[in-house]
Every structure is written in structure tokens, then in C-alpha cells.
Amino acid sequence: MLRRSAPLVVFALATALIFSGCVALTSPRIDPVGAVSGTVVDANNKPVVGAIVAVGPWTATTDSDGVYRILGIRHGDYTLEVQLLGTVVFSAEIVVGSGELKYDVAVPAQYTVGLVQGTVRDVNGLPLGE
Questions:
Q1: Which residues constitute the domain of residue 96?
Q2: What CATH number corresponds to the domain at position 97?
Q3: Which tens digits make up the pLDDT trace of 71-88?
């Protein structure tokens, strides 16, 4: 008699656990993610090296070709910002979905990075460091 009722007992126990909330029958929730990538160039169309590109809390730094890539961004609406030396020089609203969003940035001319050359001199006009 006990052997015939064992499946019924197991079924009753499983049903009780499921309906009490102790056992979940759904798979774990995985947030969908996407990516954003592109190139940052200056007003002369030259790559901007070392710019920080931020999308929400995710960031990347541009490489020697001005290229950045940010992976693992949850789907949603974000502000993409480009920073040079701690200053936001570009900002745009973007929507991250499945796959990879390509977003190239041209930094405005007033933020174009240039080269400074010259000699630093002391109060007497003599070059420093010689």
C-alpha cells in the first residue's frame, strides 16, 4: 500500500512547494545587453587619443586611432558623453538595443587638441633646464 501511494506523496509535496513560493519554475532573468562603439576625431578629422567616452556608468578610453568600444550596456536610453581633460566636449542622447550601436563623434573645433612648442625661460630670459 505504501509503494502505491509514494508517487502521490511526491506529487503533493512538489505541489505544496511550488504554490508556497519555495520553488520557482521560471529561469533566472537575464537583462538584455548591447554595445556602443565608434571613433572620436577632432575638427581636422584626426583621431583623438585618450578621450573618455561614457554611456551611463560604462566608460572607455579612445585608443591611438581614436576608437572606443563599450560592451555589456543594458538596453535603454542614455546620454553619450565625450570628455577631454575632464571637460565634457560632446553630448548626445542615444538608445542602446540588441547588437552594437556605431556612434562616431567629431569634437567641436574649440576643443581640438594642438601641440604647444617653445622654450620655458626664467625671469632673466635664460632657458630653464639647461
A1: 33-104
A2: 2.60.40.1120
A3: 999 999 999 999 998 899
